[in-house]
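Progress note, project year one: complex with manganese (II) ion.
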Amino acid sequence: MVVVMQPGATGAEIELVCQTIEEHGLEVLRMPGNVMAIGIPSAIPPDLRDPLQQKLEILPGVSKVTQVSRSYKLASREFHPSDTVVTVGGVSFGGPTIQVIAGPCSIESYEQLKAAATAVRSAGATVLRGGAFKPRTSPYAFQGLAVEGLQIMKQVGEEVGIRTISEVMSPEMVGVVAEHVDILQIGARSMQNFPLLIEAGKSDHPVMLKRGPSATIDEFLLAAEYLLSHGNSKVLLCERGVHPLDRGYTRNTLDLSAVPVLKHHSHLPVVVDPSHGTGFARYVPAMSCAAVAAGADALMIEVHPDPRHALSDAAQALTSEGFADLMKRLQAFAAAVGRPLSGTERYAAAN
Ligand code: PEP
Ligand code: MN
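Model obtained:
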């Protein structure tokens, strides 16, 4: 159960709500924005739910009391029935427009990122991706340019006029990454790095949380709940594939059924990453179209000006031309679901 207080609720009114809950032997979790979650860690006995809700609803200063049947609360649609729209620098996720985030796996140099940014922006992408801190399976693989990479990202983002996203891997780096990019990315391997989630939850920056390779939907949404419960309401969920059945054929298994499931159970915008989801550039277009058809709010696609020489994830990177072709192809799928595609107006103007 979640109790939302009216904006001007007084300390005494909040105290009375807490007291009423505690009198029933239940614990209260106070969250930012004068929201209280009840029944943590144990469930509220079923016969107490309706009477308690009625009691709380009539207390002074209470705006809304919602019963939430899931273990995640703030991430649930029961708590927040309408879609959440996360807007960053004029780019809205979760609204009508399907946004496209694109760029290289890793930031390798100013020239590489500038070429990628120029190409993806002119094809319609609204956010530039690029990793500066790379979570690599092998310690011998390219680890990223770290802060130097972030500086390149900031400069290129400003020069090209495109929003930016980059991964943060540790709680201590949240502030530094946030100084350089518009959206923080929490990678699949970090989905349950709880100190990182807590720190990113305290940030004002939007956070795109990627689903862990073996995470269930509950685990994924509970990780999002960490961000929300620490005060950050600007959360994007990203499906990027789960451990594959057939590693020789695809890097991961892109779980597209997660898209309607997440949209049903949560109000948060859903992004699909078909690049890490398949691991091969040739499969990215089909899965991008399928993701749009499935109801994704955004796509994240790896694009490199020269994939053969990419320092990471070369096999899954689209060329700049391949990305422009895909954006053309996606128009029809976006139109079929009645949504405009990222950068459509700019794209139309360029043709
Ligand atoms: C990435 O998007 O840069 C990345 C490393 O992906 P994931 O965390 O999904 O493996
Ligand atoms: Mn990558």
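Residues 214 and 242 are 6 Å apart (CA to CA).
Residues 320-336 form the longest helix (17 residues).
No further modelling is planned for this target in the current period.
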